[in-house]
């Protein structure tokens, strides 16, 4: 069983920066991607950014240039550096680990979520 533990959320002023971290533990399949999603109350969970264990990244178009995802494969940890934060970025951020198996089978693990609050 894989567990994801997030940290780094909190309160920041508009225009400020935060760095989220997510450490994975357990038996992790070698073909995987880690990433961040966010979900506001009443809304669908939406992609923020993902990164494969080979280093390929994918970002939500609206967040390119402000958010940067990185990964430490040796420690199964993913980071999200957020800059130029806006009040509309305030919500719960969830860490995700997606494992890719043969025949298109995927399996998702989720963290418990970390709150980001942006004051205007």
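^ Assign residues to that structure.
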């Amino acid at each position: 069983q894989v567990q994801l533990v997030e940290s780094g959320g909190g309160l920041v002023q508009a225009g400020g920066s935060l760095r989220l971290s997510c450490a994975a533990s357990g038996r992790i399949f070698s073909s995987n991607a880690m990433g961040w999603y966010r979900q506001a109350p009443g809304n669908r969970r939406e992609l923020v950014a993902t990164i494969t264990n080979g280093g390929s990244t994918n970002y939500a178009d609206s967040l390119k240039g402000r958010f940067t995802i990185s990964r430490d494969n040796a420690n199964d940890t993913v980071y999200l550096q957020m800059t130029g934060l806006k009040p509309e970025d305030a919500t719960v951020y969830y860490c995700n680990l997606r494992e890719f198996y043969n025949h298109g089978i995927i399996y998702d693990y989720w963290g418990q979520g970390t709150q980001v609050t942006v004051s205007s």
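The two ends are 40 Å apart (CA to CA).
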